[in-house]
Amino acid sequence: MIRAILAVVAVFVVWTGVDFVIHGVVLAETYAATAELWRPMDEMKMYLIHLAVLVSAIVFVAIYAGFFANKGMKTAVGYGVLFGFASGFSMGYGTYAVMPIPYKIALVWFWGWMIEAALGGILLGLIVGKSEPAAVPQSGAQ
After folding, report:
1. Domain that holds residue 120
2. Which of 26, 53, 45, 41 is CA-nearest to residue 116?
3. How many structural domains is the chain composed of?
4. 11-17 average pLDDT score
């Protein structure tokens, strides 16, 4: 349980940092050019953005920690990449399908989520670690 909590904190911190780079640096000019699509900065609900990242980190870690029998770096990174592909495709291209966002935003959102989730997978592999082997019952008298 302690490792899972540490993993949630680590994933949240890394995802928040990558989000800053993606949204505050890489896409800053594109967002400014499409300002009519977004709330003004003073109306943004930053607490809700952070809550969404935290909930995503909790669910990301809980799925891996609770449902994967064979844990390890390869499994964790594979899970991260698949999670990132599904989430990134949905976020980037799903939004592009229904909103007049520039293609650059869709592409960066997709690849951003791929990178974030892959990094999250690496953190899972490092923090949650490998599966513990099942205890083998000892037979015989003591």
Report:
1. 2-36+45-127
2. 53
3. 1
4. 97
